[in-house]
Each structure stands twice: as structure tokens, then as C-alpha cells.
Specification:
Radius of gyration: 23 Å
Structural class: alpha/beta
Helix content: 25-40%
Oligomer: single chain
Order of helices and strands: EHEEEHEHEEHEHEEHH
Strand order of the largest sheet: 2-1-6-5-8
Shape: elongated
Largest sheet: 5 strands, parallel
CATH superfamily of the largest domain: SPOUT methyltransferase, trefoil knot domain
Length: about 250
């Protein structure tokens, strides 16, 4: 996958993409991340990227010309038919794991990161394929959301994680929060690893993990259960958990 990020502050991306899983994915040729400064496509001596809003108001608005030129340049200089242009904005649909899995199916993602008061509406309405938010709050710019989405999407790509089983066991992958994890030592300051995890019985371990995942989701994010893929056994177990809570 190729990821292109349009940002007025390219240096912000040097750290997040220079370490850990993302770095290895780039080195292994699975992921190609390129940062482009849209100011390079702005006209005039000062390469102005923003201007005051028509009709008055505070702040500055990003001009349409440089953003359109930058996106068109990326499309013309890369050969990907299966691509998606994403604009980072709090007015977009909220990003989640399902969206990460969907975006991982594209060959190229182009992120448009804003700053200042916002974008000229012609950018949001006619240049971006989709507007995405990472939550109901306002950030200084779209750089942090682009980093977060890139990280989440890259984990979905084959070969990025050390184990092919890692992504499917992540929280939210199947609509539930992840089950607890344990490692050595077996006992630490009186706290022991559950016996079932040491039993070697894979069926029992899988059942325990599923039930713990259901418990944690019910306790911390019950809203996720409304859309999660639940079996008859899952529903039966959840009903039992709710009855136990009522009896307390």
C-alpha cells in the first residue's frame, strides 16, 4: 500500500513513522509512506495557503487551488486505480476498526491534513472522497488523525504484524474488546495466571478468552454489543452475566 499525506508540517511525521511496526513495514516494502507539503503547489511569492473567509469571521481558511493541484499531482504521478482521498476533519464520520479494515483494501490512500480555521468548502465537497474524524473534539490540525489512521490501517495489511493471528485478536476487530493477556512469571506478588491458560487445552482456552472478552465489553463498552457478531452461546453467557449483576 502507498500512503500519501498532504501536510503543511511534514516534520511532524518523522518520529511516528520512523520506529516500530510501521518502520519495519516500510523497510520490508509492504508500506510506502510519502509526505507532501501542499505549500509547494501554492502560487505567489509567499506561497500563501490560507486567506480570510468570505462573509467575515475569525481565523483563516485553507485555499482550494494548492490542495487541488497537490492531489491531482499525486494522482498523475502514481499508478493506482484503487485509491481513496481522505480529509481529516471533526465533521466527518468517526473512525473505527471496521473503517480501518475497509481502508486496508485500497492500494493508495491520500490524506488531506488541514490547519487554521478549516478548509474552503470546495475542498471538502469536491476533492475528498470521504471525510473522517477520530473523535468528537477539535485538534490543531489533521496530522495526528492521519498518523492514527495510518497506524491502524497498516496493522491490517498482510505481513505487517509478526503473527497473522495478531490483528484478528485485537480489540474491536470482531466488534468486542480484547480478552486479558498474561506472560511469565506464573505468579507475581501473589497474583497468579489463570489455570486454564496453563492447561494446554486449546478449546477451553478459546472459550475462556471469548467469555472474558464478552465480560470486558459488557462492563466497559456495552454499546459495542449492539453491533458485534454474537453466537447463541455468547448471548446466553451475556444473559447469565447480567443476571449475576442484578443479584449483587
Amino acid at each position: 500500500m502507498r500512503i500519501d499525506i498532504l501536510s503543511l508540517f511534514p516534520a511532524m511525521f518523522e518520529g511516528p513513522f520512523g520506529d516500530s511496526i510501521t518502520k519495519r513495514a516500510i523497510e520490508n516494502g509492504i508500506l510506502d509512506i510519502q509526505i507532501t507539503n501542499p505549500r509547494d503547489f501554492a502560487e505567489g511569492k509567499h506561497q500563501q495557503m490560507d486567506d480570510t473567509p468570505f462573509g467575515g469571521g475569525s481565523g483563516m481558511v485553507i485555499k482550494p487551488e494548492p490542495m487541488f493541484k497537490a492531489v491531482r499531482h499525486l494522482k498523475e504521478t502514481t499508478d493506482f486505480a484503487n485509491r481513496r482521498v481522505l480529509l481529516m476533519s471533526p465533521e466527518g464520520s468517526v473512525f473505527n476498526q471496521a473503517k480501518a479494515r475497509e481502508l486496508a483494501q485500497y492500494d493508495q490512500l491520500i490524506f488531506i491534513c488541514g490547519h487554521y480555521e478549516g478548509f474552503d468548502a470546495r475542498i471538502t465537497e469536491n476533492l475528498a472522497d470521504e471525510i473522517i474524524s477520530i473523535g468528537d473534539y477539535v485538534l490543531t490540525g489533521g496530522e495526528l488523525p492521519a498518523m492514527i489512521i495510518t497506524d491502524a490501517v497498516s496493522r491490517m495489511l498482510p505481513g505487517v504484524l509478526g503473527s497473522e493471528e495478531s490483528a484478528p485478536t485485537d480489540s474491536f476487530y470482531n466488534g468486542l474488546l480484547e480478552h486479558p493477556q498474561y506472560t511469565r512469571p506464573r505468579e507475581f506478588e501473589g497474583m497468579k495466571v489463570p489455570d486454564v491458560l496453563l492447561s494446554g487445552d486449546h478449546a477451553k482456552i478459546a472459550k475462556w478468552r471469548r467469555e472474558k472478552s464478552l465480560e470486558i465489553t459488557l462492563r466497559n463498552r456495552p454499546d459495542l454489543l449492539e453491533t458485534a457478531e454474537l453466537t447463541k452461546d455468547d448471548i446466553k453467557y451475556l444473559d447469565w452475566l447480567k443476571e449475576q449483576e442484578i443479584q449483587k
